[in-house]
């Protein structure tokens, strides 16, 4: 089948099998390897992308669902000032970025901060349910999200509260 979609802001058209997964298309057809192959069943978050405005595991998205969609990968997001907020917040809180889990942690943080600059622990726990990282404890990651939100608020409004 032929599918058309927007990938990191650019119009794309490719021919693929209908049951091919987005993770494979990104890695094999576009050499976008920030989304990793992990569990392949939606549990680990290392394959995360922003799909039509929502954080989604790309291992669960078959090609036929990509038609007319908009996809942002970590490679695309890393070109934004919002990415810089998150990296600065993570650095301040000592959040590890090993390269394997980055897509899940960073893109999930972005979608959370788009809703609130200072998400509650409950918001954080719900958003990160599908994101696994064995190296950073949940409290440090939460503090990193809060620090990123504070930096963003200050960048946009010139103050943090
Ligand atoms: S590889 Fe997609 S959620 Fe684990
Ligand atoms: S920093 Fe990547 S798995 Fe923990």
General description of the model:
By secondary structure, the protein is of the alpha+beta class. The protein folds into two domains: 2-73, Beta-grasp domain (Ubiquitin-like (UB roll)), CATH 3.10.20.30; 81-157, DNA polymerase, domain 1 (Orthogonal Bundle). The protein contains seven helices and five strands, in the order E-E-H-E-E-H-E-H-H-H-H-H. It has helices at residues 22-29, 63-66, 74-77, 81-93, 102-115, 121-127, 138-157; strands at residues 2-7, 10-15, 48-51, 54-57, 70-72. Strands 2-1-5-3-4 form a five-stranded mixed beta sheet. The longest helix has 20 residues, at 138-157. The termini are far apart. It binds FE2/S2 (inorganic) cluster (2 copies). The site of one FE2/S2 (inorganic) cluster has 12 residues, from loops.
């Amino acid at each position: 089948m032929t599918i058309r979609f927007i990938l990191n802001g650019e119009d794309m058209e490719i021919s693929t099998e209908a049951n091919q997964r987005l993770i494979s298309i990104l890695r094999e057809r576009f050499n976008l390897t920030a989304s990793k192959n992990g569990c392949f069943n939606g549990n680990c978050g290392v394959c995360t992308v922003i799909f039509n405005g929502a954080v989604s595991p790309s291992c669960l998205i078959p090609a036929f669902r990509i038609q007319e969609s908009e996809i942002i990968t970590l490679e695309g997001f890393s070109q934004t000032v919002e990415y810089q907020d998150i990296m600065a917040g993570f650095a301040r809180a000592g959040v590890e970025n090993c390269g394997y889990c980055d897509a899940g942690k960073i893109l999930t943080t972005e979608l959370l901060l788009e809703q609130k600059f200072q998400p509650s622990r409950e918001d954080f726990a719900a958003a990160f349910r599908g994101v696994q990282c064995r190296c950073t404890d949940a409290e440090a990651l939460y503090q990193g999200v809060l620090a990123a939100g504070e930096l963003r608020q200050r960048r946009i409004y010139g103050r943090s509260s």
